[in-house]
Amino acid sequence: MTTMFEELKAIILRALPTIDENTVQKLINQLPPSGLESIDDLKYVRQEDIADLLPIIQQRKLLDAFKMEIITLNLQIEPTATSPGSSVLSSLPCSTQSSVRMSTSTGSSSQENCEPPSLIRKAWTETFQVPWNLMPVEVQTAISEGNRPSPAARRQMVRVLADEMRKYDLNPTRSQCLSVCRSIILQYPKSFADQRENGQLLGGGYTSLLIQLKTRIENLNRTSSFRQHRTSDLGGKRGPTDIYGCTRFQPDLPPEETNDTVEVKRQKLEDIYGQEGVKGSERSERRHINALPAPAIADVRDKWPYLFTQKGLYAHFELLTDINVLRALEFSMEECGKNIVEFFKSKPTNDKVQAVLSEDDVELSLRVIQLLMAHFEESIEGLVLFENSFATAADLESMLTLPATPRLLLLGEKTSSRIEHWMVSLEGHIICEGIQPTFLTGLAAVFSTFYSFNLQYQEEAACTLEFIQSDFKYLRSTIQSNGQCRKEVKKKVQAGWSGWRRMSGLMCDRRIAARVKGKV
Questions:
Q1: Is-contact 50 66, C-beta < 8 A?
Q2: Positive or negative, the Cα torsion across 195, 197, 200, 203?
């Protein structure tokens, strides 16, 4: 009886590590008088038997621990001695076993039924023994004293555990790893269970150990070959695929290219890089655009197609001005947009402004541009064109006579704030199609074209564009109306010379040590 009491106490402490000694003793004193004669009788304990001693959550935890203990005891029952053929039959389904036995021995009715559960072959995880003797000394000491091992010792334990499990199965499944981790947590909860500072279990207590173990096994099972072939449902190969999902790690060359032609192009790029550095292509772009007479936009587009994308226009504008045009417009619209709308609401300057204010459900940035153009008595078509949301670039070029000066084409309903798509046109052709369906991204793109291609503001929208350039805070005093920035460059050069003149007396004085001058 004393042995049963000790086992019962150990089960209770494993399930409820924070329980006080008095409550443990009350549980031990209450269960045996109810008829508990062995550990196997724990399966008959019900929640109402311990309801007056524990909170409801702890009652459920303890009952689950009792059930797990019974399962563990049943798994430890060794099968009885059988004939050599019975071990093979034990792994077959009941119906298969019966048919095999009937074909070998038809006279025995007892063999027509399935074997008892104790003779069914067990999975290796049910009999797996953790090799604690192979674990680091720190881990062995920690589990004997009820302490937690250090992270390094725990990682070493996981390595030993994974190596031992792979002796039974090279790639154990997650459920098999879970079974091993759960048995470790049940045996040594204080050393390995996931717990809060107050000792309360987190979930089942085995999550972190399971993740470590499964990750270690997956790392060990990585193949040495970098690429592998996947087979489609039709039986053909999809092509080389590495373990991270790259479906074309080694792309094929285009039909018109060979290894020799690619090598020639590579050498040309290497020469450009050696002579002009990483900015070589950008300098070539500017030389082409700045040539006299000015090249047609179609020619520029043929040679530098990347420039005619939303990202390309933004990047080229930033290269030339050190300003992120989209970010500058967003900041300016955020700071000034609502103030401009409120100003015109309080003081409408003409009938066109009142007409714009009467429209509802319009994006703020679009409303601001409409108000400015109405105030300056400029037609909105001088900068923005509204077209069908289903139109393509080819449709617009064939159906419309697009102006030579830049225009922003908004694809969607004119009275709605929802913009499906936008495009930028120049010299009668669509030169850029947007990615983000917002008016402000399109405005940034069309604003970039003036400076990127050395264009002057068209007369139909010059006042509005001048206002955006000069009065929006983040674009102020940088770009001139003709797309140049000579004034700003001259101002910075003058500032540099002014600073030098202030310090030249000190820097040219021979009586002052060079060490002191270096700190200036």
A1: no
A2: negative
Single out the residue of 415, 416, 407 nearest to residue 445, CA to CA: 407
Location of structure tokens 């900041």:
331
For the chain, the average pLDDT equals 76
How far CA 243 is from CA of 173, 228, 238, in Å, comes to: 19, 7, 14
- CA dihedral 482→484→488→493, nearest 10 degrees, is -140
Would you place residue 505 in the very low, low, confident or very high pLDDT band (cuts 50, 70, 90)? Answer: low
Residues 239 and 82: their CA atoms lie apart, in Å, by 52
**pLDDT at residue 387, as a whole number:** 87
User: What is the spatial distance between Cα 34 and Cα 119, in angstroms, rounded to a whole number?
Assistant: 33
Closest CA to 469 of 307, 317, 294: 317
Which one, of 447, 438, 408, 421, lies nearest residue 325 by Cα? 447
Report the alpha-carbon distance of residue 208 to residue 463 in Å, rounded. Answer: 65
State the Cα–Cα distance between residues 510 and 507, nearest whole angstrom: 8
Taking the C-alpha atoms of residue 379 and residue 460, their distance in angstroms, rounded to an integer, is 7
Nearest to 40 by CA among 81, 14, 8, 18: 8
User: Which of helix, strand or coil describes residue 425?
Assistant: strand
Query: What is the H or E stretch that residue 47 is in?
Result: none
Question: What are the distances in angstroms from CA 197 to CA 144, 156, 181, 185, 194?
Answer: 21, 24, 21, 17, 10
Question: Where residue 234 falls among pLDDT bands split at 50, 70, 90?
Answer: very low
Q: How far apart are CA 249 and CA 34, in angstroms?
A: 70
Q: For residue 201, what is the DSSP state?
A: B
Higher pLDDT, 117 or 213: 213
pTM of the shown model:
0.44
Asked whether the predicted pLDDT for residue 516 surpasses 50, the reply is yes
Question: 């991204």: which residue's tokens?
Answer: 441
CA 501 to chain centre: 53
Beta strands in 380-459 (DSSP E): 384-387, 407-411, 421-426, 429-433
DSSP letter for each residue of 471-497? HSGGGTTT--TTS--HHHHHHHHHHHH
Give the span between the Cα atoms of 425 and 404, in whole angstroms. 8
Q: Return the closest-CA partner of residue 484 out of 455, 443, 445, 506.
A: 455
pLDDT tens-place string over residues 73-103: 555 444 444 434 444 344 444 444 444 344 4
Residue 57 CB neighbours (<10 A): 10
Which helix (H) or strand (E) segment is 346 a member of? helix 325-346
pLDDT score recorded for residue 102: 42
Query: Which pLDDT score is estimated for 490?
Result: 57
d(CA 441, CA 381): 18
Count Cα atoms within 13 angstroms, Cβ side, for 154. Answer: 18
Domains of the chain, by residue range, sit at 2-75, 125-220, 259-293, 321-484, 494-518
